[in-house]
Amino acid sequence: MATVLGPAGHGKAETRVVRVTRDGATHHLKDLNVSIALAGDLEQTYLTGDNTGVLPTDTMKNTVYAFAKEHGIPSAEAFALRLARHFVTSQPSVRRASVRVEEYAWERITADSRSAARGGAGHSFVRQGRQVRVCRVTDDGQRYQVLSGLSGLTVLNSTDSEFRGYPRDRYTTLAEASDRVLATEVNALWRYGWTGEGDGPEPAWDAVHARATQDLLEAFAETYSHSLQQTLYRMGAQVIENNPSVDEVRLSLPNKHHFLVDLEPFGLKNDNEVYFAADRPYGLIEGTVLREGAEAGIPEE
Ligand SMILES: O=c1[nH]c(=O)c2[nH]c(=O)[nH]c2[nH]1
């Protein structure tokens, strides 16, 4: 039976690079997990075993380390852009490079009197929660697509959330809630309008990331929620309203259900105080919010 090769590519996944930049006794840390995927005129390696166009994935890993040394890591996005453009411009067989970055944030351990006296404050760090900063850059040699975002940011409102008015069928047992706990783990990706030098200066990646993160948190906290769907829309909309460089936001929000525990068997009344935090199954609410006139470009996955 005849066969043909469909879409294919190769890359190095999850190169972990930690870059220390020393400014006297004060050190700065960047901690990334970098995944690279290349595609292009590479059919022959699959069909005939001809490796002429195949940049080894080992070389991709080395390039990550060498670029961290030579160029530093100004931001996840700037690092990803430089890597992506390097592969499409230096390898004739490569038509498209995709670079995904996860960044783990480290906070400085601030000087209490003891460590300050020992002078250790400049080089001691504590990892921040489970929150991960993410970015995905694709480069087809002409234009970039830059997606930034975060995952694992867990938030909870202990009031100002209800869920009522939904249809009931013979399988519905859920009680309407007029005051419930609303909790989710925010997984967000946003797309920049900037696609390359022709669009003017690069967005200020770090500043926009900080602003957008704050917008997600504020909108979550300040929205009186009738559903997680409504909260999702407000979160995405606030990022777009406050960040002119962002055209699209995609959110994936697991509903981390908190069910009231029945305390009646113990002769106790549960006044919305004691909850069972279920880890599964969970509702999964996902959606994209667009600047008016923009086209959706973030993959749904
Ligand atoms: O905010 C919610 N949206 C839903 O679609 C849903 N479905 C459900 O059982 N609980 C909830 N909560």
What's the CATH architecture name of the largest domain?
Roll
Strand-residue fraction? Answer: 25-35%
Helix content: 10-25%
N- and C-termini, Cα separation: 32 Å
| Count of distinct structural domains | 2
What letter string, H or E per element, gives the SSE order?
EEHHHEHEEEHHEEEE
Enzyme class: oxidoreductase
EC number: 1.7.3.3
GO biological process, one term: urate catabolic process
GO molecular function: urate oxidase activity
Structural write-up:
- Catalyzes the oxidation of uric acid to 5-hydroxyisourate, which is further processed to form (S)-allantoin.
- It is a single chain.
- The chain is of the alpha+beta class.
- The chain folds into two domains: about 10-130, Urate Oxidase (Roll), CATH 3.10.270.10; about 145-295, Urate Oxidase (Roll), CATH 3.10.270.10.
- The protein is built from six helices and ten strands, in the order E-E-H-H-H-E-H-E-E-E-H-H-E-E-E-E.
- It has helices at about 45, 55-70, 75-90, 115-120, 205-220, 230-240; strands at about 15-25, 25-40, 95-110, 125-140, 145-155, 180-190, 245-255, 260, 275, 285-290.
- An eight-stranded antiparallel sheet has the order 1-2-3-4-5-6-7-10.
- Helix 5 (about 205-220) packs antiparallel against helix 6.
- The protein is globular and about 75 Å long.
- The two termini are about 30 Å apart.
- The mean pLDDT is about 95.
- Uric acid (URC) binds near residues 163, 174 and 255.
